[in-house]
Amino acid sequence: MSRWRTARIASQEHPSTGLVRLRLDVDDWPGHSPGQHVVVRLRAEDGYTAQRSYSIASAPSEPAVEMLVERLPDGEVSGHLHDEARVGDVVEVNGPVGRWFVWDGESPAIAVVGGTGVVPAVSMLRHARDRGTSDALRVVAVARTWEALPYADELLDAGAFVALTRENLDGRVAAPPYPDEVAPLLDALGNDVQAFVCGSTGFVAWATRTLREQGVPESTIRVEQFGVTG
Amino acid sequence: MTEPPVTRGFVGRRRPARPDRLPPGQYDAGEQWPVLAAEPTPLVATDRWSLTVDGLVEHERTWDWAGLRAEPHERLTVDLHCVTAWSRLDTGFTGVRVADLLAEAGPLPDATHVLAHSSTGYTANLPLADVLDHPAWVVWEAQGAPLTPEHGGPARLLVPHLYLWKSVKWVSRLELMDHDDPGFWERGGYHDRGDPWREQRYQGDP
């Protein structure tokens, strides 16, 4: 059912240039599953509204709904949430939305995520930690640089495999994940793996091809893709 | 009903210059054409492509690639409205009217809905009237060039008066039914009809 709920900004952080992390206290929040998203609606004095969708980073156990907003060029909503929004401000929230790109918290799963597409994987990792099911989840997180990888420290601490493509990370030379880096993660999960891929159009094409080459059936790959063509 | 809350300090972009073209809650994406998808983009070769109309029809019909393009077709220019709030105005396509394809199969009188299938397994449900009484097409060109895989090529459904998730990419089958059967997003909480002018985004929207 469509239902807009009133939400208050409970915290606001700028983890890096171009990103703002918001936690929202949502009235009567019904709870969510890792992988779902919310729709945020802003309303001007004259009744004009604008709404956008954001993936949820928080675990179902957390009282606030956490999301990451990337500043887009001339972004009407992202610009407001970056520059004008303050703790205590009111917005409206609809959701959670989505039943497809959802991890159940226990079935063997691999999430291959890139750039700001890491957000649903953060929710999955936190949920796995809460439930004690971390053995069922593997995460491959890819970004150009450490700075461009949201939640970088948290991902590493939670055991995600992190590949940077434009700079070295500890001993690892800059490159996309190699097949022999992905294969052991899949081997650890067994045969019946659900795959989640989230990122830009180009990243999704790369990730799905890589998973196919590793023998993951196309029918088990679920995608959340964002991108633009002219 | 209490008044919906105003967000302090939110002004919003200048109101659209052509409000008659933008449904409520939508913004003009200009020349950009965002790509959203729930599954890997399939690469469907045209020599393996086909479209079948079946279900409640007098005779099932299947078109191969050459057969589809041999049907009378037209160039059209429409506005696209995605439920994620972007709209793309004045987008050009080439394709065949769905009503013409269905006429060749002969819908039976008890057919009321159509379930559009993609070769990926994606589905979307539509009232039959939305593809018979409103302009709707199966298209293979966009902006004067072959429809690219990420936009649903070789061919996709195009039902521009409804939110774009109804315009099934990589369309492979139109199944006529005597009842409404929720499709992929509709099972996930999205609206069964999806009229952008009535802002029918989610189940329960009027």
UniProtKB/TrEMBL annotation, chain A:
Keyword Cell division in annotation: no
Pfam families per record: FAD_binding_6
InterPro entries: Cbr1-like_FAD-bd_dom, FAD-bd_FR_type, FNR_nucleotide-bd, MRET, Riboflavin_synthase-like_b-brl
Residue stretches making up the FAD-binding FR-type domain: 2-103
Known cofactor(s): FAD
Keywords for this protein: 2Fe-2S, Iron, Iron-sulfur, Metal-binding
Keyword Iron: yes
Entry coiled-coil feature ranges: none
Name of this chain's protein: Ferredoxin reductase
Automatic annotation (TrEMBL), chain B:
Alphabetized SUPFAM superfamilies for the sequence: Oxidoreductase molybdopterin-binding domain
Chain ranges of the Oxidoreductase molybdopterin-binding domain: 40-185
UniProt-recorded name of the protein: Sulfite oxidase-like oxidoreductase
Signal sequence, renumbered to the chain: none
Pfam families: Oxidored_molyb
Disordered: annotated segments: 1-29
Source organism: Aeromicrobium halocynthiae
InterPro entries on file: OxRdtase_Mopterin-bd_dom (IPR000572), OxRdtase_Mopterin-bd_sf (IPR036374)
